[in-house]
Amino acid sequence: MYNFNLAKKKYSIILFLLFLCHISNGQEQSVEKFEYVVSLIDSSEKIKEGKKELLLKAFAESDYITNDSLHNEAIYKLSTSFFSLRDSFNFKKINKIGIKLSEDLKDTATLANHYWDLGAFYKRHQQVDSAYISYDISQKLHKKIGKSSIAGRLLLRMARIEKDVKDYTGSEITTTNAIKIFEPLNDYKNLYNCYNNLGIVFNNLEEYGKAIKYHHDALGILSEIEDHNNDIKKAISLNNIGIVYQNLNNHEEAINIYNEALKNDSLPIKNIRLYATLIDNLAYSKFKLNDFKDLPDLFYKALHIRDSLDTPAGIVINKLHLSEYYWKLNDTLKSYQYAIEGRNLAKKVESNDHLLDLYKLLSEIEPKNASEHLRSYIRLTDSLTKVERSTRDKFTRIKFETDQYITKNKKLSDQINWIVAISTIIIFFAFLIYIITQQRTRNKELEMEQQQQRANEEIYNLMIDQQDKIEEGRKREKERISLELHDGILGRLFGTRLSLGSLNAKNDDDSKKIRQQYINELQSIEEEVRNISHELGLDNFDKSTSYSTMITNLLEEQSKITNFKYQIEDDDRIVWTDIPGHIKINIYRIIQESIQNINKYAQAENVILDFKKNDNRIILTIKDDGVGFDQDKRSSGIGLKNMKSRVALLHGQFTINSIPGKGTSISVDVPMT
């Protein structure tokens, strides 16, 4: 019984191990598919043609990555690849999938990166409000997972957007928050960017002293940065300082600053756009000082560079400056021409600050249409004021709503955690109930098996009792016959012999000879009957013959069904009376099941039953010369399963060998105790 339960446990363990192997195999396949997708993405970066097609193939293959974490990583790589490819449709599509997947997996790091990319996408397409929202979500998520440096960089991006929409106070606050992150980290590169942004903000707020201070702070921190582009950063800061001095109408200092920046001979190579800006700004300050040396050549040089670079905003500024220059020289035609060209381009690219300057200049150049130009100026000013106010309000609302979003997500996360906790408890108790139910079922099965074992033993004992009664009847019958022979036949024969002896009066030789023959014959009969009597009377009954008789009777009865011949080879060393009853009944049932199978399927003519004793074990072999079967094609039937189960109960071994056309051999090896 214990062995049967052990077998069930072993079977469960095997199933569990197979399940683990299946999971392991699935994981390996998922890793292989992930590596294949990554290889496709990497390959797309090395080719010029067919990038999109290769990335779309990688996206299709990513659906077969069953591991959620690897799938999420693959989706992120695809999203960034389509962003780099400037494929807006596929970027938005895959970025949305990535956000949903990261939220489901609670992968905060990847979710934060997805929102960062989304913010950059919106900024690229001038959708600054959407960019701001995405950056804000991303920086809060990065801050949540301890990536403060990235959170600071995103705050700086938000501050620049606020500056661009003229929310200067908001930009100042956001930049200051970024500085608080970068200072403890000694992140000088980003501190430079923060100070530079603050300098621009305070310049626009007309707080020129603070503007110059922060630009000098930015210059001062460059010595802490190991970057081959430090000379470019220095030129940028000098240009910004020059603009502050221009706003202060200190054009002499502005010219000195611009000339210092232009001493960098690498500018035309490293950053020609900045080079054009410095030339234009230098020319404008010279113009303001009525220093017309190198003018208008410097203006045209800057314009030529900007035309070649196709930078509309820079071209607008250049044409504004040229218009002012020619207006100063009283060349109304050229002044008007550049003003109109600048106005049209400014409208097209929405360079509104310079468009206002052009409207004001046109009102002076073209007095007859001055009122129209001034009305356009006023309309644009009012419109920009409304937009700026609306944008500031929107950004304030965005910050509030983003905080609400984070709070809502936290509440949802808390709710999910509660749901998970409650679900875990419910699952635990359900599992506990399942275990208890299973244990009760096992106990019932164990009880039923024990009852079956007791029933088998009772059946066996009844069979033994029945066989004993039969043998007892035989014994009594033999005793009766023995008594009858001894007391009846022998007595009568003895009397006859005596009578013949007493009547032996005739003494002729023939009579004596005949009488002596009768007497000898009678003595022979007497001796034979005595021997029979003694044999019948001997108590040579061996109870061990009863079990063997049961086996013989079983084969005798079964052989009549299909007329097979049988042979039983018993081992005298096996004393069946010493073998426990549960072993004998199970061996009997195994023989019974095997013989029934022979009758059903084997078409055998000869059956051999062979018992052998090997150490303290009984080895039973059942052979037939029937049709046999293919063991690879035929699964075990109920009969074979029952035989195997009985052998397992006896802690034994069961083997079967069969070859089509050559019969079947079953071997049972069980302990004797």
Automatic annotation (TrEMBL):
Keywords from the named record: 4Fe-4S, ATP-binding, Cytoplasm, Iron, Iron-sulfur, Kinase, Membrane, Metal-binding, Nucleotide-binding, Phosphoprotein, Signal, TPR repeat, Transferase, Transmembrane, Transmembrane helix, Two-component regulatory system
Annotated Histidine kinase domain residues: 587-673
Signal peptide positions on this chain: 1-26
GO cellular component, as recorded: cytoplasm; membrane
Lineage: superkingdom: Bacteria
UniProt-listed PANTHER family: NITRATE/NITRITE SENSOR PROTEIN NARX-RELATED, NITRATE_NITRITE SENSOR PROTEIN NARQ
Free-text function comment from the UniProt entry: Member of the two-component regulatory system NreB/NreC involved in the control of dissimilatory nitrate/nitrite reduction in response to oxygen. NreB functions as a direct oxygen sensor histidine kinase which is autophosphorylated, in the absence of oxygen, probably at the conserved histidine residue, and transfers its phosphate group probably to a conserved aspartate residue of NreC. NreB/NreC activates the expression of the nitrate (narGHJI) and nitrite (nir) reductase operons, as well as the putative nitrate transporter gene narT.
SMART domains per record: HATPase_c (SM00387), TPR (SM00028)
UniProt cross-references to InterPro entries, sorted A to Z: HATPase_C_sf, HATPase_dom, His_kinase_dom, Sensor_HK_TwoCompSys, Sig_transdc_His_kin-like_C, Sig_transdc_His_kin_sub3_dim/P, TPR-like_helical_dom_sf, TPR_rpt
EC number from the UniProt entry: 2.7.13.3
Cofactor(s) the record lists: [4Fe-4S] cluster
A Pfam match: HATPase_c
Enzyme class: transferase
SUPFAM superfamilies with a match to the protein in the record: ATPase domain of HSP90 chaperone/DNA topoisomerase II/histidine kinase, TPR-like
TPR repeats: 235-268
Subcellular location: Cytoplasm
Record GO terms (molecular function): 4 iron, 4 sulfur cluster binding; ATP binding; metal ion binding; phosphorelay sensor kinase activity; protein dimerization activity
Name of the molecule in the record: Oxygen sensor histidine kinase NreB
Reactions accelerated catalytically: ATP + protein L-histidine = ADP + protein N-phospho-L-histidine
Bilayer-spanning residue ranges: 416-436
